[in-house]
């Protein structure tokens, strides 16, 4: 009896500790956000607390935003695009806290999952290779178990590689609902790229994404179970957009009772903001300040107020480094330009390149580009245009921010801000359509000298086809009640009838295992894994699924020839590889459609172009529809690494595989008492005691530090003593 009483007291204490509120911060003044080029650089441990919760745009924290632009700056106010919708965010910010650190620092992030619907989550550090720390990669059911709701998990890793990266949720479709933010690692010694700019300011970090009018999971279900649309509602720049206006009559629920509704739109435009400054022009009825709701462009709607523009300040005569990040979720690549200015591209995905001057640059989902903006034009206000391509063309979805020269009037630019105004001609870097004056990443040149991986003759080559497969997909169809043939006939001619088909790699749909492959590989049956040679089925005639695995040995030089057949429309597949930066050897769009057999035949005759001298390194690259992309890497980072399309809906459909590098004994062991998870049944009862003992200890690794950690440690030891000894 005493034993159970003690256990009850300990459990109650645990719940009290867990219920203690963790202070949330934007970390705008974190000590690690410092000058990394100081004479005596000393690496720091940079610790952050992330509280993840359900939240809302234009919540009560926003008071009278956007009617009073000053209120849009309030703590915990997420303006969004003017449309009130639920979100999932970190620290009541969107994007979440921007982490600015120096090369060699150690990043520690305590994640507290407070999602109220008992939804698990993880955080992936996009662009951080996690060499030696694969368990910190943050991929649900690959490198770790999802973090259960009302519990916590601590990520800890070093950042030896510099560049523009970002972090985001990697469980389900949470990334598109607001769980993301910048992660910038700056050099500690001068580099050639630094000769191109005078200023590298944290406030010139630009996180962009296409934005939905509801939870991504709801949009996904509507699209795949009932032919609903999948086009975004708008585009956000640092969490802000001007797509939706709110009536000035204040007759909606957003009005704050008792607030003075007079004109309170006065505010210093230099007000600090974690992700740069926001436009604070009074929302008057003048034509200059009104926006057109049609096609997300702009004209005069004098009865509405809009979310302020994101504002970036520059000084005439200086050159500025802008770090562009696309957290895109759908087939909507983002084309970026600045009116009246050219852009100089100097880096992509954290890797420096030889500078290229362009008029615009396109970013596919998950990509980052660093560009230089020279403030060499007549001082004034200029639009930064972000234009959506792909599926966003149908709705002409675009967004604008303001580049303001120091000392200029607080006003909007005089040039047009419509979709057509932003779809700039001239030279385009990283094109979507390969039409006109373009330069692909395969045509760019790395700033780094060549390595042996470029010219190695002992290359393991794999052909990987990406595309729709016309087979009965039980996930969205039923062979008896609503089969593919019936649905195809009923929806003939619809723009997106292809979503009835299976989107696959080598005609295989990736499924998540019941336990993480990195940490519990020995508990998984070998037959859950497969590839195109071991599947044992004709996947052209029936639906094939498994934990799609590509296995290579440590030290192998691996080349992937990625093929997008393009047979069902002009799309894009930005492929992201965890654990590696690969070399982009070639990229070409051959036709509207292409067969894998043709690519293999051309390759056998040496007709696929490869750059083996100074190819660019990336971790995310697009595969053009009707064409191919060739990437190569040296498998020197043992682990299980996800390789997937970064269009969220495509990933959800199973357009992914896991690359196993080495055997399990060659991989870094998990930290002590690392969390475990998996299936259970009464038939496994014989092994339950041992599992409980292990599981009790595992609670230690996912708890806060300090006094709380000590109490939890004592409690875990007590559980082990009572249950297992």
Q: Can you walk me through this structure?
A:
- With 725 residues, this protein is α/β, with parallel strands linked by helices.
- It folds into three domains: 74 residues, no CATH class; 373 residues, Immunoglobulin-like (Sandwich); 215 residues, Immunoglobulin-like, CATH 2.60.40.420.
- The protein is 13% helix and 29% strand.
- It contains ten helices and 37 strands.
- Strands 12-14-22-21-16-19-23-24 form an eight-stranded mixed beta sheet. Strands 27, 28, 29, 31, 34, 36 and 37 form a seven-stranded mixed beta sheet that branches. A six-stranded mixed beta sheet has the order 10-9-15-20-17-18, with no helix packed on it.
- Helix 1 packs antiparallel against helix 10 and helix 9 runs antiparallel to helix 10.
- It is globular, with a radius of gyration of 26 Å.
- The C terminus is likely disordered.
List keywords for this structure.
alpha/beta, Immunoglobulin-like, 8-stranded mixed sheet, 7-stranded mixed sheet, 29% strand
Structural class: alpha/beta
Mean pLDDT over all positions: 85
Tell me the strand order in the biggest sheet. 12-14-22-21-16-19-23-24
Cα-atom radius of gyration: 26 Å
Please give the alpha-carbon distance between the first and last residues: 17 Å
Please state roughly what percent of the residues sit in beta strands, choosing from under 5%, 5-15%, 15-25%, 25-35%, 35-45% or over 45%. Answer: 25-35%
CATH superfamily of the largest domain: Cupredoxins -  blue copper proteins
Number of discrete domains: 3
Q: How many beta-strand elements?
A: 37
The quaternary structure here is single chain
What is the CATH C level class of the largest domain, in words?
Mainly Beta
Q: What would CATH call the architecture of the largest domain? A: Sandwich
Regions with little confidence, pLDDT below 50 for 5+ residues: 11-19, 250-300, 688-710, 720-725
């Amino acid at each position: 009896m005493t034993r159970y009483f003690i256990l009850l007291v300990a459990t109650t204490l645990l719940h009290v500790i867990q219920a203690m509120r963790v202070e949330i911060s934007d970390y705008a003044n974190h000590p690690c956000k410092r000058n990394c080029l100081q004479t005596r650089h000393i690496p720091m441990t940079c610790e952050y607390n992330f509280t993840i919760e359900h939240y809302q745009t234009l919540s009560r924290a926003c008071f009278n935003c956007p009617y009073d632009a000053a209120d849009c700056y309030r703590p915990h106010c997420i303006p969004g695009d003017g449309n009130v919708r639920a979100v999932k965010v970190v620290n009541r910010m969107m994007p979440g806290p921007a982490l600015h650190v120096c090369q060699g620092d150690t990043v520690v992030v305590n994640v507290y999952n407070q999602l109220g619907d008992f939804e698990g989550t993880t955080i992936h550090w996009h662009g951080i290779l996690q060499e030696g720390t694969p368990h910190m990669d943050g991929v649900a059911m690959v490198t770790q178990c999802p973090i259960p709701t009302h519990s916590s998990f601590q990520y800890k890793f070093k950042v030896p590689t510099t560049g523009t990266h970002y972090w985001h949720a990697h469980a389900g479709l949470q990334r598109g609902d607001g769980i993301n933010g910048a992660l910038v690692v700056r050099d500690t010694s001068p580099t050639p790229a630094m000769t191109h700019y005078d200023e590298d300011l944290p406030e010139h970090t630009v996180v962009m994404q296409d934005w939905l009018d509801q939870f991504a999971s709801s949009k996904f279900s509507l699209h795949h179970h009932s032919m609903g649309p999948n086009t975004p509602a708008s585009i956000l720049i640092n969490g802000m957009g001007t797509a939706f206006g709110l009536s000035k009559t204040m007759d909606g629920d957003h009005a704050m009772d008792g607030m003075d509704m007079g004109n309170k739109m006065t505010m210093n435009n230099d007000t600090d903001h974690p992700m740069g400054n926001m436009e604070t022009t009074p929302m008057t009825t003048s034509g200059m300040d009104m926006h057109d709701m049609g096609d997300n462009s702009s004209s005069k709607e004098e009865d509405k107020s809009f979310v302020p523009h994101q504002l970036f300040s520059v000084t005439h005569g200086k050159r500025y480094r802008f770090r562009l990040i696309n957290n895109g979720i759908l087939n909507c690549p983002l084309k970026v330009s600045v009116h009246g200015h050219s852009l100089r591209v100097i880096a992509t995905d954290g890797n420096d390149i030889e500078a290229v001057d362009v008029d615009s640059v396109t970013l596919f989902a998950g990509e980052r580009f660093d560009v230089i903006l020279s403030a060499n034009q007549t001082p004034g206000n200029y639009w930064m245009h972000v234009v959506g391509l792909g599926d966003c063309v149908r709705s002409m979805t675009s967004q604008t921010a303001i580049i303001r020269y120091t000392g200029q009037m607080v006003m909007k630019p005089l040039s047009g801000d419509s979709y057509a105004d932003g779809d700039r001609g001239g030279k385009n870097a990283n094109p979507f359509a390969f039409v006109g004056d373009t330069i692909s990443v395969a045509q760019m040149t790395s700033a780094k000298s060549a390595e042996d991986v470029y010219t190695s003759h002992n290359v393991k080559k794999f052909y990987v086809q990406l595309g729709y497969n016309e087979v009965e997909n039980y996930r969205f169809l039923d062979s008896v009640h609503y089969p593919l043939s019936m649905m195809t006939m009923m929806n003939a001619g619809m723009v997106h009838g292809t979503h009835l088909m299976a989107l696959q790699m080598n005609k295989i749909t990736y499924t998540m295992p019941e336990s993480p492959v990195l940490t519990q590989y020995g508990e998984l049956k070998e037959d859950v894994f497969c590839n195109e040679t071991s599947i044992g089925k004709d996947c052209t005639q029936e639906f094939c699924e498994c934990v799609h695995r590509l296995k290579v040995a440590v030290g192998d030089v691996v080349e992937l020839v990625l093929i997008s057949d393009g047979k069902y429309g002009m799309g894009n597949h930005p492929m992201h590889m965890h654990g590696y930066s690969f070399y982009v050897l070639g990229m070409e769009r051959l036709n509207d459609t292409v067969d894998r057999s043709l690519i293999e035949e051309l390759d056998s005759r040496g007709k696929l172009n490869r750059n083996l001298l100074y190819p660019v390194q990336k971790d995310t690259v697009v595969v053009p529809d009707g064409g191919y992309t060739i990437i190569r890497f040296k498998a020197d980072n043992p682990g299980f690494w996800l390789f997937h399309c970064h269009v969220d809906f495509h990933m959800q459909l199973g357009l992914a595989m896991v690359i196993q590098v080495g055997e399990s004994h060659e991989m870094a062991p998990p930290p002590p008492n690392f969390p475990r998870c998996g299936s259970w049944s009464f038939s496994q009862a014989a092994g339950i005691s041992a599992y409980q003992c292990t599981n009790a200890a595992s609670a230690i690794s996912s708890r806060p530090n300090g006094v709380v950690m000590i109490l939890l440690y004592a409690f875990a030891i007590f559980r082990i003593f009572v249950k297992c000894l």
